User: What shape does this take?
Amino acid sequence: MAFREAASWWNGGLEAAIAVSTRSRIVRNIAGMPFPSRLNADDREAVVSIAGEAIEKSGMFGPTGVRCSVASVSPIERRILVERTLLRSSAGEADVHLWVSADETIAVAVNDDDHLRIGATTAGADAAFAYQRTLEHERLLETTIPFSFDPTHGFHATSASDVGTGLRLSVMVHVPLLIWEQKAALEKLLTAIVRSGGVISGMRGHKSRSIGDIIEISNQSTLGVSEREIVDNARTFIRKIIRAETKAREDALKKDRALIEDRVWRSLATLRAARSITYLETTAFLSWIRVGAHMGIISVPMALITMALFTTQKAHLCREHAALVPKAGRDIIRADRMRALFAPYGG
Amino acid sequence: MICQICGEEEAVLHIQEIVGDARTELHVCKRCAEAKGILRDIASLNLTLSATVAPPRSKKKPRAKLRSLTCSRCGTTGDEYVKDHRAGCSHCYTDLSPVMNGVLKELHPGITHTGRVPKEPGNSAAEIIRLKSELALLLKQEDYERAATLRDAIAALSRTER
Assistant: This one.
């Protein structure tokens, strides 16, 4: 499977210095068919053909979209799909098919946990737009596929946590100064978010670890709330987080400008010089580089920093290899990549 | 997951602490969390990035009669649904409804859908008209960000209509 050098949603976006990306995902099932976990091989194939026909007929991916069967891609390619958030890491393989738009902002997975899983990702903070994109694609499918639905439960889903709207909206926010300097303010903010129905996790669904000072906020509930409320709620969360982190950055600069500048420049210098570097170290340095670019300390494009963040993951490093390179080797490849990416930005 | 302290009840609180590269995990039930003061700590805003609180599951188990319900189409039982929260087909939503509603009540603010409903194919002309009036309102309110999104949606819908 051919991947773009960079997914288009790595390219900045609204409030890019703090909001890395926003993702919307809707799950739907075809009326009258058992859900994927209860399907036999023949029925799974039937689902692929019904969904495939609807997708192709709608023309939603045009001639440039990519279609693949997850079972037929190499292990590295599969990991890349996960690292680019196009495929769920726990997605099965049997007859799971994936359609991806050429710019990698929209993906439809067929026969994962549900018959159809429509995901849209946008750069920066844009909950309304991300949701709108999934809705547009769902509406295109709706013209040919009858969805499993009843007025009380809404859209049926395999998991109880998806019933109703089937909508999960999540945003990845980069909040290093809140984490390191204003923990109490962050805790207060996150508690308020959790209380009003948000879920907090680390980058890419890591239960609790905030890799590269990035946390993900998403809605917990899908039933008894409308799509509009979910979107509005997400917009409120995002606005609050962005305001708090911006203030924390300004406060930190006022308090000790030399210290912040030192961290930023050291981070950039390390990535420009290291010969072997681990994933966690890299994400920590990228975090300070992002702050530096935001506060005008260094001039590195936000899109480049986001690209570095995603392409420093292990499968991306091993794209040209048949299998994952052992860790020591990966750390060397990673350092090479980072040196090449940041070479033009020495100040 | 079973509580790591009493080894009996279902764990409702999952705590991970990460210091440097070392990670420790603790899974505890509500009773033990209360007894050890963990729940109180979290209630008093001691929530950190390394503590995630799962919505409390009620200790009350559904009656045996409900648990023995079986979906006439796919065979998923009420007991299975209570355990893993997974439906097997759309019929489960009818046949297992009483037991399902108990589970859904714990996960969501309501058990009645208030979101959008599927459109009958070919019905989008009326929707375009409705959206256009909403767009006019948004423009009046000078909410240009939403208006732009809506304008794109109308364009997309008009394409399908043709």
About this structure: Chain A has a mean pLDDT of 91.
